[in-house]
TrEMBL record, chain A:
It comes from the Eukaryota. It comes from Carassius auratus (Goldfish). One of its GO terms (cellular component) is lysosomal membrane. This is GATOR complex protein MIOS. Residues 398-627 form the MIOS-like alpha-solenoid domain. The gene is LOC113059288. GO terms for molecular function: zinc ion binding. It is found in: Lysosome membrane. The lineage of its organism: Eukaryota, Metazoa, Chordata, Craniata, Vertebrata. InterPro entries: MIOS/Sea4, MIOS_a-sol, WD40/YVTN_repeat-like_dom_sf, WD40_repeat_dom_sf, WD40_rpt, Zn_ribbon_mio.
Automatic annotation (TrEMBL), chain B:
GO terms for molecular function: arginine binding; identical protein binding. Belongs to the GATS family. Functions as an intracellular arginine sensor within the amino acid-sensing branch of the TORC1 signaling pathway. As a homodimer or a heterodimer with CASTOR2, binds and inhibits the GATOR subcomplex GATOR2 and thereby mTORC1. Binding of arginine to CASTOR1 allosterically disrupts the interaction of CASTOR1-containing dimers with GATOR2 which can in turn activate mTORC1 and the TORC1 signaling pathway. One of its GO terms (cellular component) is cytosol. SUPFAM superfamilies: ACT-like. GO terms for biological process: negative regulation of TORC1 signaling. The gene is LOC113068106. Residues 75-139, 261-323 form the CASTOR ACT domain. The keyword Cytoplasm applies. This is Cytosolic arginine sensor for mTORC1 subunit 1. Keywords: Cytoplasm, Phosphoprotein, Ubl conjugation.
Length: 877, 331
């Protein structure tokens, strides 16, 4: 017959390496590292690192129902065992015979009426006291508190009557309990309250939880509930108690004992054990019958006391300590964090540590922090100068770029890529595109041709679509009279596209010479040669290559390429063609490669050039505009646009322009990089209205502003806002604060605009001596004086429309910027709480040394009310 | 004091000795296979006449109707008195004695028929479901009454019951005093850890179902004076056993538990012929004088007769008391 006992497990309260498994007998184990020299043959592996050694077995106490370990250091390893007949026996494990607990071991505490002992608890302070919770008996108490040091009862059971109680060995029997509680009810679980060791929390059959105070046992506080099993006090929170009933756990706050503060989600199967983690705040582990998982409830962030109006924040998760077997019981380790041992019904044990949830936080400045258990880890970027730009986090890049005024150069737009670090080809392409667009618009403005203006910002894709009247020419190779068999296409739109690509500057005449010169200057020999070749000037191409080879650090191989180039023949079956078309693939430089591809391809079939992804989009597009016909060209552009959009490649802005397509492209770029900065600045350049209304664009802009705020780059934020409001007048914020005159109630700044008029009005009546100029310290509306500064006692007032120009030399630099504004030091400031205030400068210096309001008898701590008042911007003004 | 109306709807049945074999399967299932049945209230009492089985409707489904099964027609509800712990009266007596004055007597006055079932743990007072309003109306003065429904205790108020008060108020001629039989055997009231039920299964089956087979060493003389009485109940997970000392010797000593004083009880069987279920005041008749003398008593009603258990040392005075009572009433 299989025994009905499922093994339970108990950690020693003081020896972190010992625990007891109890089923039909008690077995003491020691836990140690696996594979250590002292490991003997009999050890049981508990985990990869640990193993258990059986130290002792005690089978003296049959019919065990519950076990409790003596809480004090001495005598160690003393256990109280509650039996099915209600007797409580003290026993010990693995102790030598002369140990201190010798006289206690074997002592039995016998209730008047035999019934099952359900639970045992040692008093944490008065460790002689042992509370036993028994089943119900008609006339007996269900909670007996025994004093283990009490002498044997004088009125020991008469031998004649003891015939039914089993043994007559009554020498160690104690029958008189110290206290008796809970008549007419069973006690299913109990615990001592750590706040007051005289108080005991009992859970009875009649669906109530009751708190008894041993100093006055006739009084009790009680509450009716079904959750009467397994009452246990949170070791980190003496007012928090968990109890359960079937599948439901109730959490109680003893200070609000009327009802559970909350109940946890009900489990389909009945619970068998609920235990607070002793090493981690607010972590409750629960186990249900026949289950192989332990469910954990993290109440760390649940406020106590707990209000009715909020939902509790409880994080629920489950762990599976051993994959197959079901769990019979578990026990938290008393000191090792989040560690437990679980035992299966067939006594297979597992040492297990619950992995703590990791909470992670990014800072706005690239560093990453995460917390796991009691450890806090920080990961910061290697900020050394040596760090390659490409490896830097986008946040670092954006910070650096913000500091170098990236995006703010509205005159030489292309320079922005230099401000961005100048090492990103996509940004370079983007800013050049925007530059060319702007340049073209400006040219148009001079010519009063505004109908094309919107077209230019809509990208080459839309430009070529509108193309009409294409002409086809067949030119000779320059410097030779051989006719090429390559047709070249011209139209107004195509030349506009070429302008955007930067190949030609303006006008209908196609002169790439300035562009070639600039490329030569930058040392882009191969690119220049390719551009020259595509303009059917082999001689120029060869010349460029020669120049490149002879330049400083030049590549001598360029000469070889030039030689190969000079051998060009249009003979279809020549050896040159054959060799070039196969060997070109081995060329490492993409531009050289496409040059030979161009020379060896059939007319109209330039895929080797058009789809050479190593070549910049603008060059390929320019090439396409020259050599693809009206049906091929839009198809190619569409295809390329689609690729660019998919990849989020900023070079594609050339094709999409700042249209909805462009926003789509930018969206995938932002998705890929997170670079809201570039996205914001780029989209602000769009023609007014259209793209800026797109919610995505607004989102990028707002995020970029938030980012600047988070970095405390408030000046940068302000600069950005100014920049933005210039380009997008609709974004200009409405005034949010007005200063109104105490006398006439008009806004003093609003009235400013009316000064000349009013002044004239007054002068008509001859009231004022100076009709056109009123004092800044009086209300422009009613001319009454404005309030006084609390510190200098001067009337406040800021010249709004006139230059503050006190003429100090050091301020001159700022004059351009501050032309229309008064100096900050003279600004109105006031506390929203006490309404006192004065000149901003005075207030700032006052609060540098004081915390209270400068007005006497006002105790307002104005500056402390301002949470951001003590923050310092991290960008210098 | 609280009175709980428990959440069980009970049927009182009797299985004749000859028909027992038809019912061994459901009985063994109800006793030993707790996980296979949803029956929460089960009591089986063997008397020389028959087997009385009191069980809830879940358990009742297991019993196939036959000529050997007699079923009392009504549904019975168990009541239970909870003394709240702090009402530790001066009386040291236990059992029906404690509730004789507060429950049994008032119900008898209102002519409510009760069926008593004492166990090791407590005393159940079974009343007919139709009498409930009268019961509540009668006892609401003395008790806080709670009705248990789905695990919750719901307070019951008297206004639910005020019209029912008159119903049983009909005047009935004063109850007859029944003859009392006092057998010689000593009884003990015991309990058992339900988990150890399997360990005593064979003994229990033997004692319950094979008690009629002749036993070695049991003399014929003794049988005349002793009465066969064995009660087993399994109610809400609690086991209670009432048996005589002879039967008790067949069980392993360390498994059954009882009071540390190990007291023994003598029985008074009430009724010369089967009592039926309608007569009122029988329990009151016995418990009243016991309460007056502060003598503990258990009381177990069966299908035919009622049985009171009183402490061994008090049997003489109880016998005298009951005989005096018989003489007092003019027949």
């Amino acid at each position: 017959m299989s025994s009905g006992y499922k093994p339970d497990i108990l950690w020693s309260p003081h020896h972190a390496d010992r625990y007891v498994i109890c089923d039909t007998e008690l077995s003491l184990y020691r836990i140690g590292p696996a594979g250590s020299p002292e490991t003997k043959a009999g050890t049981l592996p508990l985990s990869e690192e640990t193993a258990a050694t059986l130290l002792a077995i005690n089978s003296d106490t049959p019919y065990m129902k519950c076990v409790a370990w003596y809480p004090k250091h001495e005598p160690e390893c003393l256990l109280a065992v509650g039996q099915a007949n209600g007797r409580v026996v003290l026993t010990s494990l693995g102790q030598s015979h002369n140990s201190k607990c010798k006289e206690l071991v074997g002592k039995e505490f016998v209730p008047k009426h035999a019934r099952q002992c359900n639970t045992l608890a040692w008093n944490p302070v008065d460790s002689n006291w042992l509370a036993a919770g028994l089943d119900k008996h008609r006339a007996d108490f269900s909670v007996l508190i025994w004093d283990i040091s009490s002498k044997f009862s004088p009125e020991s059971v008469p031998a004649e009557k003891a015939r039914l109680s089993g043994d007559v060995d009554s020498g160690l029997l104690v029958t008189k309990p110290l206290y008796e509680l809970g008549q007419n009810d069973a006690c299913l679980s109990l615990c001592w309250l750590p706040r007051d060791h005289q108080k005991l929390l009992l859970a009875g059959m009649h669906r109530n939880l009751a708190i008894f105070d041993l100093r006055n046992t006739s009084q009790k506080t009680f509450v009716n509930t079904k959750a009467i099993q397994g009452v246990t006090v949170d070791p980190h929170f003496p007012d928090r108690v968990a109890s359960f009933f079937e599948g439901q756990v109730a959490i109680w706050d003893l200070r609000k004992f009327e009802k559970p503060v909350f109940t946890l989600t009900e489990q389909p199967k009945p619970l068998t054990k609920v235990a607070w983690c002793p090493t981690r705040m607010g972590l409750l582990a629960t186990l249900t019958r026949d289950s192989n998982i332990i469910r954990l409830y993290d109440m760390q962030h649940t406020p106590m006391p707990f209000g009715d109006e909020v939902e509790p924040t409880i994080i629920e998760r489950s762990v599976q300590p051993c994959s197959e077997s079901i769990i019979s019981s578990f026990a938290w380790h008393p000191s090792a964090q989040n560690r437990m041992v679980v035992v299966s019904p067939n006594r297979v044990m597992n040492d297990f540590t619950v992995f703590e949830r990791i909470s992670l936080a990014w800072s706005s400045t690239t560093s990453l922090m995460w917390a796991c258990g009691r450890h806090l880890y920080e990961c910061t970027e290697d900020g050394g100068q040596g760090a390659a730009a490409a490896d830097k986090d986008i946040a670092t890049k954006m910070r650096e770029r913000a500091q170098s005024h990236y995006g703010h150069d509205t005159v030489q737009v292309w320079r922005n890529h230099v401000l961005a670090g100048g090492d990103d080809p996509q940004l370079r392409s983007l800013w050049y595109t925007l530059h060319f667009m702007k340049q073209y618009t400006e040219n148009l403005e001079q010519k009063q041709q505004s109908n094309k203006q919107s077209l230019i910002y809509s990208g080459i894709k839309n430009i070529v679509k509108s193309s009409s009247g294409t002409t086809e020419t067949r030119r000779c190779w320059s410097g030779s009279d051989r006719q090429t068999d390559v047709p070249r296409y011209h139209s107004e739109e195509r030349s506009l596209a070429l302008q955007l690509c930067g190949w030609i500057s303006r006008g209908p005449d196609i002169d790439v010479e300035p562009f070639l010169k600039s490329l030569e200057q930058e040392g882009e020999w191969e690119r220049a040669a390719a551009v020259a070749l595509f303009n059917l000037d082999i001689r120029r191409a060869i010349q460029i290559l020669n120049k490149g080879a002879s330049a400083e650090k030049g590549d001598l191989n360029l000469n070889v390429v030039a030689m190969a180039l000079s051998g060009y023949t249009d003979e279809k079956n020549s050896l040159w063609r054959e060799m070039c078309s196969s060997l070109r693939l081995q060329l490492k430089k993409a531009h050289l490669c496409i040059m030979f591809a161009f020379l060896t391809s059939e007319p109209g079939a330039f895929d080797a050039v058009l789809y050479e992804s190593r070549v910049a989009v603008r060059d390929r597009v320019a090439f396409a505009c020259m050599f693809l016909n009206d049906t091929q060209l839009p198809r190619y552009i569409d295809k390329l646009t689609y690729e660019m959009k998919e990849a989020g490649n900023l070079e594609g802005i050339l094709l999409t322009g700042l249209t909805k397509d462009g926003v789509d492209l930018m969206e995938s770029y932002v998705d890929r990089t997170g670079d809201v900065q570039t996205a914001s600045f780029c989209m602000l350049k769009g023609s007014p209205g259209e793209v800026l209304k797109d919610p995505r664009v607004q989102c990028w802009i707002e995020n970029y502003r938030n980012l600047l705020d988070a970095w405390r780059f408030w000046h940068k934020r302000a600069e950005f806002d100014i920049h933005r409001s210039k380009l997008d007048p609709s974004s200009k914020p409405l005034p949010q604060v007005f200063v109104s005159c105490n006398f006439c109630g008009k806004s003093i700044s609003y009235s400013c605009s009316a000064i000349p008029h009013q002044g004239r009005g007054f002068s008509q009546y001859g009231v004022s001596g100076s009709p056109t100029k009123s004092k800044v310290t009086s209300c422009p509306g009613c001319r009454k004086p404005l309030p006084r500064c609390a510190l200098c006692l001067m009337n406040m007032g800021t010249p709004v429309s006139s230059c503050p120009g006190t003429g100090k030399a050091d301020e001159k630099a700022d004059l351009t910027r501050d032309k229309k504004l008064a100096q900050f030091n003279n600004w109105f400031t006031w506390c929203h709480n006490c309404r006192h205030g004065g000149h901003a400068g005075h207030m700032l210096s006052w609060f540098r040394d004081h915390s209270e309001c400068p007005v006497s008898a006002c105790t307002c701590k104005c500056m402390q009310l301002d949470t951001t008042g003590n923050l310092v911007p991290s960008d210098s003004a | 004091m609280d009175l709980h109306i428990l959440d069980h709807k009970l049927r009182v049945t009797s299985i004749s000795k000859t028909g027992l074999q038809q019912y061994t399967h459901p009985l063994i299932k109800l006793i030993f296979l707790r996980n296979r049945t949803r029956c929460k209230f089960f009591s089986l009492t063997e008397t020389p006449e028959n087997y009385t089985v009191v069980l809830d409707e879940e358990g009742f489904k297991e019993l196939q109707p036959s000529e050997h099964l007699q079923v009392e027609g009504s549904t019975w509800l168990p009541l239970n008195v909870v003394s709240n712990g702090n009402a530790s009266s001066s009386s040291q007596a236990v059992g029906v004695t404690k509730i004789a004055k507060s429950v049994i007597a008032p119900l008898a006055e209102q002519h409510v028929s009760v069926f008593m079932l004492s166990t090791y743990q407590t005393d159940f007072i079974l009343v007919r479901e139709k009498d409930l309003s009268v019961v509540v109306g009668t006892l609401v003065e003395e008790f806080n009454i709670f009705r248990e429904e789905g695990g919750e205790s719901v307070p019951v108020h008297s206004q639910d019951a005020c019209n029912g008060l008159q119903r049983n108020g009909r005047e009935v001629p004063h109850a007859t005093v029944h003859p009392v039989l006092i057998p010689k055997n000593q009884f003990c009231v015991m309990s058992l850890d339900p988990d150890t039920l399997p360990a005593i299964a064979t003994t229990l089956i033997d004692v319950l179902f094979y008690s009629n087979s002749p036993k070695e060493g049991a003399s014929v003389d003794q049988d005349m004076e002793c009465i066969k009485f064995f009660s087993f109940s399994l109610i809400d997970g609690y086991v209670s056993l009432v048996m005589d000392t002879e039967a008790q010797r067949q069980f392993p000593a360390d498994l059954l538990f009882t009071s540390s004083s190990g007291e023994l009880w003598r029985m008074a069987r009430i009724g010369g012929q089967p009592l039926g279920f309608d007569e009122c005041g029988i329990v009151a008749q016995i418990s009243q004088p016991l309460a007056d003398s502060d003598i503990s008593a258990y009381y177990i009603s069966t299908f035919s007769f009622d049985h009171a258990l009183v402490p061994e040392e008090d049997i003489v005075s109880v016998t005298e008391m009951l005989q005096a009572q018989r003489k007092d009433i003019p027949s």
